[in-house]
Amino acid sequence: MKAITTLILLLGFAAAQTASSQVVGPEEIGPALVWTVQGDFRDIKQDIVTTIEAKGLVVSYTAYAANMLARTSEAVEDAKPVYDQGESILFCKADLSHELAQQDPHNIVLCPYSISLYTLIDAPTTTYVSVRLPALQVPAYIAVHDLLEQIVEQALEWYR
């Protein structure tokens, strides 16, 4: 019995170690903060949406960027497929959006907020989750960026 218990504990520890290696990041890549996740795109998207909704927020739109690029590739010379799947989830949080607008009415360009998920043609089992780097010259946007990071981190807890 003791050997079985030890085996179960070792298997659980090994599974936890494997799971912890499924998320890398976030890393600054170009204009984005990017998490790299070994996991199914649809599952990760659902986890992001569920986390947004659990905070009482509503997804206002999903932009299907990979579909648009695929659909329009024939109209663009030398366009090559990059994404296997790619979507941006858009939403706002009323108090933060009001603060942005009151600070400067031109901050309207910072709402809605966006979390993007995508897989690459060459690596369809790796899902990237990204948010824009914070607009440091806009102090009220720091709270928005903190919210975006918090949502991604909470959604990816299952993959750590």
What features would you describe in this structure?
The chain is α+β, with helices and mostly antiparallel strands and 160 residues long. It has a single domain (22-159), classed as TATA-Binding Protein (2-Layer Sandwich), CATH 3.30.310.70. It is 41% helix and 29% strand. It has 5 helices and 6 strands, in the order H-E-E-H-E-H-E-H-E-E-H. It has helices at 2-20, 41-54, 65-72, 94-103, 141-155; strands at 23-29, 32-38, 59-63, 83-91, 113-120, 123-132. Strands 1-2-6-5-4-3 form a 6-stranded antiparallel β-sheet. A hairpin with a 2-residue loop joins strand 5 and strand 6 (123-132). Helix 2 (41-54) crosses helix 5 (141-155). The chain is globular. The relative contact order is 0.18. InterPro entries: TT1751-like_sf.
Query: Total domains, how many?
Result: 1
Number of strands: 6
Give the integer mean of the pLDDT values: 88
Sheet with most strands: 6 strands, antiparallel
CATH architecture descriptor text: 2-Layer Sandwich
What is the percent of helical residues?
Answer: 40-55%
Q: What is the CATH homologous superfamily assignment?
A: TT1751-like domain
Give the helices and strands as they follow along the chain.
HEEHEHEHEEH
By DSSP (H or I, 4+ residues per run), the number of helices equals 5
InterPro entries: TT1751-like_sf
